[in-house]
Amino acid sequence: MEIPISRIQAAASEIMHRAAIDIPEDYRTGIEAARKTETGALPCFVLKAMVDNWDAATQDRRPMCADSGLPRYYVKMGNNARLESGFVGVERALRIATAKATHDIPLRPNRVHPLWRTDHNNNVGINAPEIEWSFEPDADWIEITTVHKGGLFGTDYRMLFPGDGIDGIKRFVLDGLIAYGKRGLACQPAIVGIGIGGSKDTCMQLGKQAACLRVVGDRHPDEKIAELEDELKELGNSIGMGAMGYVGSSMVVDCHIEVGYTHTGGMPVSIHTFCLSSRRCTARIYADGRIEYRTNPEWFTPYMRREDVEWQTEALA
After folding, report:
1. Strand pairing class (190-197; 252-260)
2. Do 256 and 169 reside in the same domain of the chain?
3. Computed over its alpha carbons, how large is the radius of gyration of the chain?
4. What sequence ranges are listed for the domain Fe-S hydro-lyase tartrate dehydratase alpha-type catalytic (predicted)?
5. pLDDT tens-place string over residues 148-159
6. Same structural domain, 101 and 159
7. Exposure pattern of 254-269 as b/e (b: 16+ CB <10 Å)?
């Protein structure tokens, strides 16, 4: 049975609304935990104002932040799913949903041509919105996640060398967080995502996905990476900065790391901050038209992180 394209568009429109207005419960829980440990007067004021703003947004059904960032999509395809109109139909449905949501919610139309500053007033244009794809075996559904992530600051990249080691990663992350806090570039407290490895472009993708597609409290299945996540979170909250860069201890709500095999001569690292309006929502659409909504994207499945060496298996067959 084919998944109707009309249901995909309806789901995309709905998650755009939910992401813009309702804060994910895991992030809210993280902020409530930060309020219990933060001692700075100004950061405490900011944290309370954040929670009050979320409550008002939910009650009034208005966007929680005036800056809607750059809405984007992450699409996970079940290997057994069949789509009406195929992948091109999905892409078109997501573009239509973006334009419609920009008008209906409304969202601020942030997308402009980089050179001519042409603005279509709907967050749609050349290569916009971004759509990233992944796949899942033994599934017959399509899953769509929207993330409203800022597109200006709070992101950095550095090519380290293997000899820089874990200490080099820590130094780079702390340098970035201090710079963001001093210059007001990240709207913290933030979920910090770190990508390690891959080529430069995949390193940046991994870091953004780590920030935007994992929930507060989630830990990497590799125990040593999980330990590094905890350590970097603690380090980030020990630099003397709190909410919005004021003196305090609530810089980082959580830290997530994702890795990819890289060139033997390098160790690329990226850092991304998912700001205090951590906007995401996921819809899973089944062939019978059912739609399930949630705020945990479950993007990093065991299949996504697999480390098997398939050519060896094929050679032995």
Report:
1. parallel
2. yes
3. 20
4. 11-283
5. 988 778 899 999
6. no
7. bbbbbbeebeeebbbb
In terms of residues, how long is the chain? 317
Q: Are 267 and 275 in contact (CB under 8 A)?
A: no
Identify whether residues 73 and 131 lie together within a single domain. Answer: yes
Q: Give the pLDDT confidence score for residue 235 in this predicted structure.
A: 96
Please report, for the domain that includes residue 133, its CATH number: 3.30.1330
Non-local CB neighbours of 71 within 8 Å, separated by 6+ positions: 16, 19, 98, 101, 102, 107, 123, 129, 146, 147, 148
The alpha carbon dihedral of 52, 58, 62, 63 has a sign of positive
The CA-based angle 57-124-205, given to 5 degrees, is 80
**Domain shared by 161 and 265, yes or no:** yes
**Quick one: which H or E segment has residue 310?**
helix 310-316
- Residues 87-109 have pLDDT tens digits of 999 999 999 999 999 999 999 99
The answer on 135 and 77 residing in a single domain is yes
The whole-model pTM stands at: 0.95
Are the CB atoms for 1 and 270 separated by under 8 Å?
A: no
